[in-house]
Amino acid sequence: MAGTAAKPFDFDELGAASAMPERTYSAAEMEQAQQEARDTAINQLVARKAEAQTRLLERILSQLNTDRKIFTDALNAHRTAMSQTAEKVLEKFCAGLNANRETEIALRLLNTYLAAAPDQAPAAIVLSKKTNTPAISKLKKAVSANGGNKFMTVETSPDIEPGDCRIEWRQGALSYDLEKTLRQIHEIFSSAPENRKKTKTRKATSP
User: Fold this and answer.
1) Domain residues of the chain, as ranges?
2) pLDDT for residue 207 is more than 50
3) Under a CB-based contact definition with an 8 Å cutoff, are residues 98 and 178 in contact?
4) The domain 46-193: what is its CATH number?
5) Cα 33 to chain center, whole Å?
6) Rounded to 5 degrees, what are φ and ψ at 169?
7) 200 and 151 in contact (C-beta within 8 Å)?
8) CA-to-CA distance for 105 and 107, rounded, in angstroms?
9) Average pLDDT in the 56-61 region?
10) 3-state secondary structure string, the chain?
């Protein structure tokens, strides 16, 4: 400030400040300070290790989830493939059985008809046009042995597949066809959980 004289530096005060005694710490204070430093270092080390372990566990869990999904997808694909294979095998088996037991199938249908129509109204049991002559002769003999020759004739038709048969009478008809059996087989296999899920997925992705 203008008009105020500068105070001269007092070297005596500087010397007096330098001569002040240094602070000393007791052994207990030193031990406490060292213990606090050790605790801080240990806590930091534990925190770093815990963080590293957490990251490691997260990576392991992520990998396990990925592996589980891969395993689940593979298992479901295997189940679906096995189910589809079993369906195809069963379809071929039924087709072969159907063709080789044409007469027996027709007789079972005949017995079903006789049980439902005891009045013995005129009727015809119709086989495929491709049915061989021995099979037709065998069926005629079986019908005759059951007393059906009095009202039942054995005929063939081009609209019936080999192995299938149909009984026709004035009020209606009763039939057996392989396609119906195969549809039932397909419905059974389609009701399996893995196939239902696949069907829903196909529907969801269809345009």
Assistant:
1) 46-193
2) no
3) yes
4) 3.30.2320.30
5) 64
6) -145, 175
7) no
8) 5
9) 85
10) CCCCCCCCCCHHHHHHHHCCCCCCCCHHHHHHHHHHHHHHHHHHHHHHHHHHHHHHHHHHHHHHHHHHHHHHHHHHHHHHHHHHHHHHHHHHHHHHHHHHCHHHHHHHHHHHHHHHCCCCCCEEEEEECCCCHHHHHHHHHHHHHCCHHHCEEEEEECCCCCCCEEEEECCEEEEECHHHHHHHHHHHHHCCHHHHHHHHHHHHHCC
Q: What is the dihedral of CA 139, 145, 149, 153, to 10 degrees?
A: -10
Give 206's pLDDT tier (boundaries 50, 70, 90).
Answer: very low
> Over the stretch 119-138, which tens digit does the pLDDT of each residue have?
777 888 888 888 888 888 88
- Using CA atoms, how far apart are residues 11 and 86, in angstroms rounded to an integer? 108
- Evaluate whether 139 touches 125 at the Cβ level (below 8 Å): yes
Q: What is the pLDDT of residues 140-190, one digit of tens each?
A: 888 888 777 778 888 888 888 877 888 888 878 888 777 777 777 778 777
Distance (Å, rounded) from C-alpha 174 to C-alpha 118?
15
Per the document, the length of the chain is 207
- Which among 156, 162, 158 is positioned nearest to 176, based on CA atoms? 162
